[in-house]
Amino acid sequence: MQNKKNITEQEFDERYTYNAATDKLGEGGFGSVFKAYDNHRDRWVALKIAKVNPQYENIRLRKEVEMVAKLPSHPNIAYYEECYTFPQRDGEYDFGILQYYEEGNLMQLLKNNTLQLHQKLSILTQILNGIEFLHQNSIIHRDLKPQNILMVKRGNEYISKITDFGISKQLDINKSSVFSNSIAGAGTLAYGSPEQLGDKEIRKNTDLWSFGVIAFQVFTGKLPFTTGEHPSTSEAGRTELFRQINSGQLPKEIENIPEFWQTLIRKCLVVDPAQRMHNVAEAKEILEGKQKAESTKAESAKAESAKAESRKQKAEGIYPAGGGLRRWKEDVPDEETHVESPTITAQQPVPPVPPVPNVPPKPKNLKPLWFVLGGVVIVIIVLLFLLKPKPEPEPVAYEETVEEPILNIPEQATYTQPSPNTETQDRLERERKAKEERDRLERERAKEEQDRLERERAKEEQDRLDQEKKEKEKAAKLVQQANSVFNNNNLGAARYEQSLQLYKEAKGLGGDVSAGYRNFLSEAKTLIEIGAGFDTNVKKMLLYAKQLNDTQEVRDYLKKCN
User: Are 84 and 5 in contact, with CB atoms under 8 Å apart?
Assistant: First the structure.
């Protein structure tokens, strides 16, 4: 990649302006990043500056830019726009231009915000997608950490952008180099895999170890492995980190992480790379298993709820019939114990009773008498039944008797419609849940607004402090310049006026001008001692000193002049 349109260093400086003292966004082993203003497109950009080391030509910034430029577009990768190279006094420097991300990196986001669970899951899933994309393009990042994941806020969601491919290894390049098999100090100990820290052969899943550390930190706010009380650059710190990693134990905070993500992190943080999770596809299988389990759990809960409702209806005597619910009296047996009883309808004629012969009783055998009495009783019952007026059958009753045997019930049985209270209760329950959801969303919006205001106040306070710092630095330079002018005898009497203006400008910026006060007061005293008395020049020096610091001593001297 050549300098676009052979841009000169002067043209570059005119287009991209920044203050190296106040606009630094970050610094790493391979360069520094500044917030710069693009005067051509009127926007902020991030400017990465890295010195070119001829010994490490394969990892210079321009190589990183060229490697990323060859990748297809992906939503979770941060791409450079341009790269320029200019010679400086101490060697060549690469200048990389990329989009400025106002939210900063993931480390800053975790430090300055309280993320919701769904935001954490979204951020981590996007990082996984970015890692998978790099591996599919035969790139191992090897330096994944929150500082190398830039963030974009889109509504209430955060978008992850993997960046800083300075020590990334392309798998199709197997030549020996300083970074062939180790991070060689370029990565970060807390996120480096055991094989990186131990200078061993690396595989794709070295990035999955780093992802496991990041995921643990996102969920718990802590690192799973640390250097303890020792500095991270010390040998004692390195030894303590190795001890924690090789122990195979994770901090107790792992138990507070959602179950499936807990499983994923454990499989990422396996010391032996051969036993560790091999690729992102395995990670996604674990997370998809979570979704299936949650779906199965929801269906089971729904089925159990339906069974409970059915048992409740039976207990209350409610049974389905004709597409609706009917409530029968409690004396009607349920489905399991129902025994059909014979019924008499208008379509079932009563058979005629045969005549009973009049047989005279035998004196010695009373059985025929009992038969006669029984026959008389039967005849009386039949006559009473036949003489009873018969109601006209209703066609509907006939159809129900034929089509729906379940309606063939004793006449005294009645049913009632379902109570409207159930429908009212359901409506009230839906309204209650809707209100709770609205209240929850309102609380979230209020909290987000409060967080936004706090961030704005913090930014304003930081801007104020930065401005004060700039003014103090400028004031100090003005005082230093004023001292030089005051002591420059070649300027003659003009040095007093010139230095006074510089002192007053420094005082207006809040600077310490006590040195100027002492200079003018000392000059006045010197003139008095050499015999000038309290003449006009002495009075002028005293008035200059009073403008810088109105002390009682100066006022006393001025009274003597008058």
Answer: no
pLDDT tens by residue, 105-130: 999 999 999 999 999 999 999 999 99
Cα dihedral sign for 11, 15, 20, 21? positive
Total-model pTM: 0.52
Q: Which stretch of DSSP H or E encloses residue 67?
A: helix 61-69
In a domain, 393, yes or no: no
Cα–Cα distance measured from residue 488 to residue 414, given in angstroms and rounded to the nearest whole number: 119
The DSSP string of 327-393 is EE-TTS--TTT--------TTSPPPPPPPPP-PPPBTTB-HHHHHHHHHHHHHHHHHHHHHSPPPPP
What lies within 8 Å, CB to CB, of 20 at 6+ separation is: 34
User: Looking at residue 27, which CATH number applies to its domain?
Assistant: 3.30.200.20
Q: Are 555 and 523 in contact (CB under 8 A)?
A: no
**CA distances to 453, 474, 506 from 545, in Å:** 46, 21, 14
Q: Using CA atoms, how far apart are residues 150 and 182, in angstroms rounded to an integer?
A: 24
Instruction: Among 92-101, 216-225, 241-250, 393-402, name the one with the lowest average pLDDT.
Output: 393-402
CA gap 120, 230 in Å, rounded: 30
Cα separation of 432 and 439, whole Å?
A: 10
CATH number of the domain to which 173 belongs: 1.10.510.10
Regarding whether 69 and 197 lie in a shared domain, the answer is no
Domain that holds residue 133: 106-291
Cβ neighbours around 361 below 10 Å, total: 13
CATH number at residue 507: 1.25.40
The answer for residues whose C-beta is within 8 angstroms of residue 81's C-beta and 6 or more apart is 45, 97, 98, 99
Q: Give the long-range contacts of residues 227-231, CB within 8 A, separation 24 or more.
A: 227/189, 227/190
In a domain, 466, yes or no: yes
Burial (Cβ within 10 Å: 0-12, 13-18, ≥19) of residue 296: exposed
- Per the structure, the count of domains in the chain is 3
Is 59:179 a contact under the CB 8 Å cutoff? Answer: yes
Same domain? For 50 and 94 the reply is yes
Q: What is the pLDDT of residue 59?
A: 80
Q: Which residues contact 406 (CB under 8 A, 6 or more apart)?
A: 321
Question: Are 379 and 353 within 8 A, CB to CB?
Answer: yes
The closest alpha carbon to 294, from 269, 326, 258, belongs to 258
* Residue 314 resides in a domain: no
Which 8-state DSSP code applies to residue 404? Answer: -
Torsional class of 155: left (φ above 0), alpha (ψ -120 to 50), beta (otherwise): left
User: 501: which 2 tokens?
Assistant: 């203006």
| pLDDT tens digits, 22-42 | 999 888 767 899 999 999 999
